[in-house]
């Protein structure tokens, strides 16, 4: 029996999941199924009944230790191939509707040079980012969902010198770089395999105990922002991704997330800490024509504690690396 014969089968989704050009699959109650290729969403010619969607949902979750039912209507899990599946069902959806979203781990680029070749960034920006990595700067990668943030992190990590120790913290394993000294950790929901919940905050705190030269946080979207800032303020560098509308907005969101960590966390303290540990913010944009680096900003010494000042290093509309204030 071949490896293909033993691969998991997922009903009407099998062909889409086997298609290497498909990046994401969105099933809305069986009535509509969308696929995303090269960042572009299109309607697939697939219509199935609610029972077929339920069967596929159960197949997707088989072996993950999780199930979707009325007691647990929101479930996230990782498939054997690394794809991330998110399922929502009744009672938070319509009684006869279950929704499935699968984001496949599609390696679209393996190096910064690949991104240059795909017109995601010019060569001078690639050189700028290489220099930032090799000089141990902390890099924040921002953008909308599906903008290519994790792909860029993977490419940047390939520039880390082999003698450096990297510790990664993710909700689902997506970082995949052959570094000789890299420890990877992912979160765990409560009840999985009978164990207690392990949050992203737990992982970031644990990362600092592992003598890292660089800490990587897969996606910052909550109080773990404070723990990450404290870890980076302890002398190591870092990388992280965050959903934001611009480079400056990414810094503001770090402050907002940090406030969620506790009642006694002051905003002025968070702003000073963000400014002191984040060196460069890369903002990615997703369009119908592709994904690319829209702008790169440096975080200089702050003169006003109430608003972030950033120095533009690159803007796609300007077409060159620069150094003027914006």
Helical content stands at: 25-40%
- Series of secondary-structure elements, N-terminal to C-terminal: HEEEHEEEHHEHEEHEHEHHEEEE
Q: Give the mean pLDDT.
A: 89
Query: In terms of per-residue confidence, which ranges show pLDDT below 50 for 5 or more consecutive residues?
Result: 1-6
Structural class: alpha/beta
Kindly provide the radius of gyration, computed on alpha-carbon positions and rounded to a whole number of angstroms: 21 Å
Span of the ends, CA to CA: 61 Å
Q: Can you tell me the overall shape?
A: globular
Largest sheet: 9 strands, mixed
Number of helices: 9
* Beta-strand content estimate: 15-25%
User: Biggest sheet, strands in spatial order?
Assistant: 9-8-10-11-7-12-13-14-15
Kindly state the number of beta strands. 15
If you had to describe this structure to a student in words, what would you say it looks like?
With 326 residues, the protein is of the alpha/beta class. It has nine helices and 15 strands. Mean pLDDT is 89; it is low at 1-6.
Quick recap:
The protein is α/β, with parallel strands linked by helices and 326 residues long. It has helices at 14-18, 50-61, 112-117, 123-134, 149-157, 200-208, 224-232, 247-259, 267-277, and strands at 24-28, 32-37, 40-44, 74-78, 84-88, 99-103, 139-143, 166-170, 182-186, 214-217, 237-243, 280-287, 290-298, 311-315, 320-321. A hairpin with a 4-residue loop joins strand 14 (311-315) and strand 15 (320-321).
């Amino acid at each position: 029996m071949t490896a293909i014969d033993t691969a998991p089968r997922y009903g009407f989704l099998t062909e889409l999941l086997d298609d290497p050009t498909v990046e994401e699959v969105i099933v809305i109650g069986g009535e509509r199924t969308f696929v995303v290729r090269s960042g572009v969403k299109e309607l697939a010619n697939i219509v199935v009944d609610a029972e077929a969607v339920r069967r596929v949902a159960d197949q997707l979750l088989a072996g993950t230790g999780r199930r979707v039912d009325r007691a647990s209507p929101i479930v996230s899990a990782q498939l054997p191939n690394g794809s991330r599946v998110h399922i929502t069902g009744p009672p938070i959806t319509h009684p006869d509707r279950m929704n499935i979203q699968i984001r496949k781990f599609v390696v679209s680029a393996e190096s910064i040079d690949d991104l240059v070749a795909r017109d995601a960034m010019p060569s001078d920006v690639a050189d700028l980012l290489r220099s930032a990595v090799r000089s141990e700067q902390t890099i924040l990668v921002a953008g909308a969902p599906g903008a290519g943030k994790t792909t860029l992190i993977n490419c940047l990590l390939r520039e880390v010198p082999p003698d450096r120790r990297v510790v990664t913290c993710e909700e689902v394993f997506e970082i995949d770089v052959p570094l000789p000294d890299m420890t990877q950790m992912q979160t765990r929901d409560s009840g999985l395999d009978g164990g207690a919940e392990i949050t992203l905050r737990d992982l970031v705190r644990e990362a600092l105990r592992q003598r890292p030269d660089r800490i990587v946080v897969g996606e910052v979207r909550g109080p773990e922002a404070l723990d990450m800032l404290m870890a980076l303020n302890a002398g190591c560098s870092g990388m992280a991704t965050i959903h934001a509308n611009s480079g400056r907005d990414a810094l503001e969101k770090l402050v907002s997330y940090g406030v969620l960590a506790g009642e006694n966390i002051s905003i002025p303290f968070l702003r000073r800490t963000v400014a002191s540990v984040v060196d460069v913010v890369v903002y990615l944009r997703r369009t119908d024509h592709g994904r690319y680096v829209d702008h790169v900003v440096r975080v200089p010494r702050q003169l006003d504690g109430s608003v972030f000042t950033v120095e533009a290093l690159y803007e796609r509309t300007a077409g060159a690396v620069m150094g003027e204030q914006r």
